């Protein structure tokens, strides 16, 4: 049984574990090639998250349809069987023509400042892809539909940038602040609806010590 149920609703949101593409600092986006498979480190991260949530009683799983999220959800849930919805709105940002480039090569090609390059994509879509506000719109649509369903505790498995926009949509965090957050592989949050009807976000994984060391 789930020990702490001092909330009316909870959403546990998990980013996928580290992939081979992540290890090479590639902009995977919606790529679903072998680079999207979890690396050994990513499988270990998902196993650690599984231990943290093994007492959770999930009603349903909502998951990006990409390989790396499917694989992460299988490890996190172990042998548990849940009603599962694969939703394209949970897919990673579409990087368009620069999909597959390393982040460093992308910044060099377009002469971008590492400190604020994300902010330049808020309104301006990647060529052949999406802007951050496009992503926010589709993630917000998912959030609205999710909140209209009948459940107590659900699991969402997605990607780094959808997690940032999920934080923005659900808690009111400024999208420009959210997009600058550093989201490590397999980062997990609990979003709890409190007695005042507000969503509170608590990071579940990784449990950082001395600022992530």
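^ structure tokens above, recovered residues below v
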């Amino acid at each position: 049984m789930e020990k702490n149920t001092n909330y009316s609703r909870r959403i546990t949101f998990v980013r996928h574990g580290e992939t081979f593409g992540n290890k090479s600092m590639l902009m995977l986006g919606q790529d679903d090639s072998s680079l999207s498979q979890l690396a050994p480190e990513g499988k270990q991260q998902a196993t650690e998250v599984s231990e943290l949530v093994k007492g959770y009683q999930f009603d349903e799983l909502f998951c990006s349809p990409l390989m790396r999220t499917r694989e992460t959800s299988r490890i996190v849930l172990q042998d548990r069987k849940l009603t599962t919805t694969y939703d394209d709105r949970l897919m990673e940002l579409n990087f368009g023509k620069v999909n597959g480039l390393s982040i460093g090569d992308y910044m060099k090609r377009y002469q971008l400042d590492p400190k604020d390059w994300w902010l330049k994509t808020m309104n301006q879509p990647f060529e052949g892809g999406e802007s951050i506000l496009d992503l926010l719109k589709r993630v917000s649509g998912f959030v609205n539909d999710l909140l209209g369903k009948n459940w107590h505790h659900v699991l969402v498995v997605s990607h780094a940038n959808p997690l940032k926009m999920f934080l923005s949509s659900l808690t009111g965090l400024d999208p420009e602040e959210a997009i600058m957050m550093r989201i490590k592989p397999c980062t997990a949050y609990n979003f709890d609806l409190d007695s005042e009807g507000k969503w509170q976000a608590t990071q579940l994984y990784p449990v950082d010590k001395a600022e992530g060391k």
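The chain has one domain: 9-205.
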